[in-house]
Amino acid sequence: MENKIVVYTSSGCSYCDQVLEILTEEQVEFDERNISENLDYFKEWKAKDVLGTPATFLGEELVLGVEKLKLVKLAEKVKQH
User: Fold this and answer.
1) Is the pLDDT of residue 1 over 70?
2) Residue 63: its H or E element
């Protein structure tokens, strides 16, 4: 399993900011990919068949939107490895 969290965000998205804050508080590394600013990230996001941001992935596991409990669980999985 991949051990890095990837967060697809878009510019001006307050929910995206909330997800980034939660992951920062959990002190885990993550890779933010802004689909509004980077066409390659947009193509990656689109290929995953996701219809919104924030979209947080750990491998194939997806948390869509701001679901703090699920995000914390993702962070715990990363910390265990």
Assistant:
1) no
2) strand 61-64
Reported pTM: 0.94
- Helix spans in the chain (H): 14-25, 39-47, 68-80
pLDDT at 19 over 70: yes
Q: Which domain holds residue 47?
A: 5-80
**Has residue 2 got a pLDDT over 90?**
no
Contact 2, 54 (CB under 8 A): no
Provide the domain count of the chain: 1
Mean pLDDT for all residues in the chain: 94
At 30, which CATH number? 3.40.30.10
Share in percent of the chain as helix, strand, coil (round to 5): 40, 20, 35
Instruction: DSSP letter for 67, please.
Output: -
